[in-house]
Amino acid sequence: MASISSSEAIEALAADIGENVYIDVAKWHLFLSNAHLHTTVAEKLYPLLSGNKLSADQVTQVLQSIPVKLGGGKREVPLADLIPMQCMVNLISNSKFRF
């Protein structure tokens, strides 16, 4: 089996994240692919996926480091504040996010 390049792995990771992780605002779910944040999350998580399980702290730090502009840029909120706990758990434990 041929190995995949890191850019292909990041693209695959971004696709999985984009389809499975969402922002929750007033019970409205905006998937990260629709919010154009899935690639950013994948690029920051990928270096941490060296065969080891991601820790909750690592995922939280990554999501805290990604600002999301609200109200046309009037306010910025860390992505971690917008993602429900179940999506955080999926990022931490879901085996499909392993390469």
Domain count, please report it.
1
Point out poorly predicted stretches: none
Please work out how many helical segments DSSP would assign: 4
Structural class: alpha+beta
Shape: globular
- Helix fraction by DSSP (H/I, runs of at least 4): 40-55%
Order of helices and strands: HEEHHEEH
- How many angstroms does the end-to-end distance come to? 14 Å
Summarize model confidence as the mean pLDDT.
87
Largest sheet: 2 strands, antiparallel
* Share in β-strands: 15-25%
Radius of gyration using CA atoms only: 13 Å
- Report the strand count: 4
Strands side by side in the biggest sheet: 1-2
Describe the secondary-structure layout:
Layout: H1 6-20, E1 22-25, E2 28-31, H2 38-45, H3 56-64, E3 67-70, E4 75-78, H4 85-93
Antiparallel strand pairs: 1-2, 3-4
Helix pairs in contact: 1-2
Structural commentary:
The chain is α+β, with helices and mostly antiparallel strands. The protein has one domain (6-97). It has helices at 6-20, 38-45, 56-64, 85-93, and strands at 22-25, 28-31, 67-70, 75-78. The strands form 2 sheets. The chain has a two-stranded antiparallel ribbon with strand order 1-2. A two-stranded antiparallel sheet has the order 3-4. β1 (22-25) and β2 form a beta hairpin. α1 packs across α2. The model has no long low-confidence stretch (mean pLDDT 87).
